[in-house]
């Protein structure tokens, strides 16, 4: 059963929502968030590098800021 409000994320066995890993590539995130996600950055860049360069603490912060 799909849990409402998880936005494609899943819960771990302990009930926590799984977060994106820092080694997730920008190209993979573009599949979920659209081709305009992280425009101007290479698709093979890791999420952790993107967050560092953009000065964001998490993917959520980056997404909220770019709205």
Structure description:
The protein has 67 residues and is mostly helical. The chain has a domain of 40 residues. It contains 3 helices and no strands. The longest helix has 8 residues.
Summarize the structure.
The chain has 67 residues and is mainly α. It has 3 helices and no strands.
Q: What's the layout of helices and strands?
A:
Elements: H1 26-33, H2 47-54, H3 59-65
Q: What percentage of amino acids are in beta strands?
A: under 5%
Low-confidence stretches: none
What structural class results from the helix and strand content?
A: mainly alpha
Number of strands: 0
Q: Please summarize the sheet with the most strands.
A: none
Number of helices: 3
Compute the separation of the termini in Å.
Answer: 30 Å
Percentage of residues assigned to helices? 25-40%
> What is the N-to-C succession of helices and strands?
HHH
Average pLDDT figure: 81
Keywords:
67 residues, mainly alpha
